[in-house]
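User: I'm putting together a teaching handout on how multi-component assemblies are represented. Below are the sequence lines for each component of a complex, exactly as they appear in our records. Could you produce the 3D structure of the whole assembly as structure tokens, so the students can see both representations side by side? Please keep the chain order the same as the input.
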Amino acid sequence: MISDPDTDIGGAQHRFPVTNQSAIVQARSADQTVRQRAFDTILASYWKPVYKYIRLKWQAGNEDAKDLTQGFFANAFEKNHFANYDAGKASFQTFLRTCLDGFIANERKAGRRLKRGGDVEHFQLDFVGAGEEYAAQVWPCHVTPEDFFQREWVRSIFTLSVESLRRRYAESGKEIQFQLFERYDLADDGARNMSYGLLAEEFGLSAATVTNYLAAARRDFRRVVLEKLREITATEEEFRNEARSLLGVDVK
Amino acid sequence: MRWLSDERLSYLRDLVANPDFSATKYRIISELARGGMGTVYLAEDTELDRRVAIKVLSTPETNNDLRQRMIREAQIIARLEHPGIVPVHDVGVLPDSRVFYAMKYVRGSRLDEYAANVDSIKDRLRKFQAACDAVAFAHAHGVIHRDLKPQNIMIGLFGEVLVLDWGVAKILGKRNMIVSVEADPPLAPRNFADTSHGTIIGTRDYMSPEQARGEIDKLDERSDVYSLGAVLYFLLTNRAPQSASLSRPRTVNPQVSKQAEAICLKAMSPEMKARYATAAELSRDVGQLLDSEPVSAYRENVVEKVGRWAGKNRFLILLVLAYLVMRIIFIFTSRS
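Assistant: Of course. Below is the structure of the complete assembly, with chains in the same order as your input.
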């Protein structure tokens, strides 16, 4: 790909208004409520990649991985570890993974599973679903645990974005628009090979309406993904870098 | 929560990263280049079953009037039929309001890549002259390019020179029109008020001072001439010109002739009035230089005139000298 960074115009492509506050920054707040909200955001984005990473890299069984995931986040929240993140040193994703490795190494060394009480449930997380996903996933041998973690993190962002879009559309009475988006862009058996005309027939809409609804849903989806990304990056620079490397989107 | 498979995830990543062409006849294959003014994609025209290059312009906050004007101008520019111009085949608006242009997909190398492999200044000047001719054709139809740079000039597989990326070109209007496109309606005059004054369009190293200042209403053919001069500077020195402290080409590369330097500096004059009036004039001077004829940008002294004449007539001079030597030998041998 040829990069041509010197071309200038009074604007940039892929420019979306991104206004969300960074949960990483809010994790340092003196206000307990703000901190709790920030933590929930981080937990929602990271718990599944963390669980699967523990299973892959640390060869943990389902029960052990569940317990370690719960323990890691409970410990991080209790000791406010995320407030120690320094954006100048690494991305938050790398920081969290390094903390996780350190935590598990310590836990393994101390053999602390029983001490923690084993099945203590700090957070309501769908480990059954995560376990099934992990079991169904096939990973080529050249994929490192770190790559795997990053890929799962991207998957997590996109999954949360889909849910966020579904919620927003439901709140604003745009169920049909979401159903179209779901049918054409999300379904694995994909309507992508269908023409808009056929899709229009299926939904009892005109082809022009289908085009407009899908375009709007995609535009909104892009915005939601970037908002999610903004929430879980600490600085503008990190946000831009992640958007560029993970999504190929230039954000100014 | 819905489980996103790898395939679905990859599709959604593309959906976020790539412009939405699903309602058009184009299918994106890959990204070719990216800059502040837009991104160029290699795409497939599914109706005609051919590959095209599509540029999606960065036009945030684009209002409907501006979009319509951009489309109208693209239609006009598409009528420029010249072997050195890659015209716009198609133009449209994406669902997210961005304007896109479909162009012929050109295989070859960019002028900067070409220059990296060709040392001969004469060869480079020939390519440069061909680019000037293409721009001159557009000027003759009242169109200015506004983003001329080595990256927008392609050398095709057969050595042909093509000027690309007319996506931000502007129509100057009747005051500058010399001829109209045959069998087509005359090019419509543009209203400069459409482009907000103060907007910087172009590429810094290659843009004229008036363009760098955002003086949109002052731009005319001479702004393109400046950019061509900057391209010539690059070809002579292998360096993009630094407008803040421009070194003379001969100080960067002593192999550059005084005439070539003079042409370059005249084209790059900060004062618009001091530049060549059109790309055609610039092309003519470059042609003169290639033919070892006097150039308008440089006044030669007698010694230089003789030197240039001698250089041009080297064979004749050698012939005369050989004749004189033979003659002298003949005189001496006949006396003895």
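A couple of points students might notice: Confidence is low (pLDDT under 50) at residues 175-198 of chain B. The longest strand of chain B covers residues 26-35.
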